[in-house]
Fold this sequence. Notes:
Rossmann fold, 8 helices, alpha/beta, 3-stranded antiparallel sheet
Amino acid sequence: MNFSLFKIQYKLFLFRFKLVLKAFGFWNGHLRFKKLYLDFSIPLSKNKGYGEQLIVDKLNRAAEKYNLVENSFIRDGILLPISDYDFNLLGIIYLLKKTTLNVLDFGGNLATSYIQHKELIRNSVSKWWILEQKEVVGIGKKYLKENKIEFCIDLNQVPSVELDILLFGSVLPYLESPYVILEALLLKHPKIVYVDRTYFLNFECSDFVMSQKMLGSSESYPVWLFNQKKFVDFLNKFGYKLISESISKFEFVPIATSRSLIFIYDRPNSPVKN
Length: 274
């Protein structure tokens, strides 16, 4: 399909859908998605990214307060009370039935997932690696003193151990080349791949990029909306089978759904031992 024609049809569709949402009061209100792109090149030049100093400063302020506030964790630079849990993650850890789990948390921020569930999983985890940007790693090492957490800026810093869980917590949509990152990490053959809070299109269409902005904020980011079939087929090529799919409760987008997918390594003669 001609891209210009597709863009016109998409805008008409989104405009009509917004009118329906507005009429019925169903618009989310905290996220705004605008402008359509085929890749990250244009939106990166116009939007702030996660490496921007403003965002780093926000993380740093939250981390400074972390040790002063009991039962709290940090998500997106905001210090939050521990009042909810990710039961998908807890279920994965329970089903693996190990006390020496090795977890690689790509883009795990300031150990958001580990700290949120620490009291429930600490006896099951041997090491929880956070693979993050240099600025985030520096903040994490300075303020988060947890002996089971290791921050690193490069995959080569992760020891050659058997990985039980590879976690992507709402991070793949914000990468410039998500499939390149996926491939590099899948080649380490983790037993479970957990893709949490990731946008998948509600209709058949190629992946594309939109600009995401928090209402009431000047911060905006380019974000991928994925074709789910293409995404699942990609993991299938590396021997991963989709075993669970659920809708995330965090975000609603008119043309896409935030989903959580769980894959298990299922290739015959797998080098990963059970």
